[in-house]
């Protein structure tokens, strides 16, 4: 995350010194703040993860509150219960994340890791199926597959 912020900050600083750019001061401020945030994120990744988890928790709780408020004002044609369930889950997860961001960051990293492993296995299987289909097509037609 820190390196992404660093690249973004450098881009904003470059934009701030380009001639003809409107809002050069704002780009300069954005780039300067981005550099500070990038250094903090790179030097203290644990603190960055906790802060990001806390921010996501607050955002989810607020989003859930908006969904619950929307469910109250929803018309009869809409499915209020879906908004209530979605809003309730968002508030619950948001409160859990904000209440203990350290453990939540570890749990989120674990879940993301597991999800990415599953995603990778699925894509390897898909690649195998596509490769086998292309090979079978070559064998049956006697022609190579266009690339």
From TrEMBL:
Pfam families: DUF308 (PF03729). Keywords: Membrane, Transmembrane, Transmembrane helix. InterPro entries: DUF308_memb. The chain crosses the membrane at residues 35-60, 81-99, 105-127. This is Uncharacterized membrane protein HdeD (DUF308 family). It comes from Nocardioides aurantiacus.
């Amino acid at each position: 995350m820190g390196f992404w912020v660093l690249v973004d900050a450098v881009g904003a600083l470059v934009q701030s010194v380009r001639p003809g750019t409107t809002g050069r001061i704002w780009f300069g401020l954005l780039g300067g703040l981005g550099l500070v945030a990038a250094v903090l994120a790179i030097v203290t990744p644990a603190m960055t993860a906790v802060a990001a988890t806390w921010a996501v928790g607050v955002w989810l709780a607020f989003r859930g509150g908006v969904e619950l408020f929307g469910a109250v004002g929803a018309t009869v044609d809409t499915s209020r219960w879906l908004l209530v369930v979605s809003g309730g889950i968002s508030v619950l997860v948001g409160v859990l994340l904000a209440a203990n961001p350290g453990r939540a960051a570890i749990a989120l990293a674990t879940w993301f890791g597991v999800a990415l492993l599953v995603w990778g296995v699925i894509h390897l299987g898909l690649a195998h199926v596509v490769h086998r289909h292309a090979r079978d097509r070559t064998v049956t037609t006697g022609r190579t597959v266009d690339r």
